Amino acid sequence: MSEEEPGGGHRLGSYLRARRELVSPSQVGLPSGGRRRVPGLRREEVALLAGISPDYYLRLERGRDKNPSPQVLESLARVLQLDDIERMYLLDLAAARPRAPRRKRSEHVPARVYELLAHLQIPAFVEGRAFDVLASNPMAVAFSPRLRPGQNRLRSLLLDPEERAFHQDWTKATANFIATLRTTIGDDIDNPRFVELVGELALSSQRFRTLWARHDVRILEGGTTTVHHPVVGDLHLHRDKLPIEDVILVVYYPDKDSDSDEKLRLLAALAHTGTADDQTRVGRPDVSSDRPTR
Fold first, then answer.
1. DSSP conformational letter for 233
2. CA 114, CA 266: separation in Å to the nearest integer?
3. What is the CB neighbour count within 10 angstroms for residue 166?
């Protein structure tokens, strides 16, 4: 496994190199003319702009110095034009220390959450840290059959043609999901589920390999999205992600009395009668297992 993957080598150096390659000379006020053998900034250019020696920066990228000062990291974050989330990720990488392997623990859906799902009349489901669907209500499955328990949302997004057609902006969705996965992994790089998922997607998806190599980091929270439902058409919905213990409850809902509200009520009626592509069948999954079924 390469050093860019969970369980790999020095992540601080990998992150610095990836971000350096995404910054053009013109973005930092340097001339962009002449032949350049590498994309983005050269190492010596980053060092000059950050006020450190080229040799020291080279040691950072190659993992020979794993304890840069906060001042050096802040200077590098400025040169690499990191936003607040990316800057905190950089600081956390430098602060990470070797640790004993964590005990593998199953992600557990509290019993009360099943009761909540049963009462919600909007698409709602529970996901784990690796985007595994752990539980869902009938409206979620009517909304998308890829939200059945045992599915993995990122895997579906990258490999299922129907899921790609489902999203109005598939390019943005994949970028956000992959960057969020890297943020979620954090220093838990030896987690078997993360190692398994990253390894599978690295082998099966060029889109994943390209975006994973960028080392983007994001936090995927609430927002709005537009999807193309095959039965009721376009739905413009809000999305909220609510942490409950060690899992996340995800809900989708429309503006009241909007066109999407009417379409969602129609979808609910179709799901109730079992005519929405037979998408209403959903059972209570065995949440004691932390590996989704394929």
1. E
2. 24
3. 21
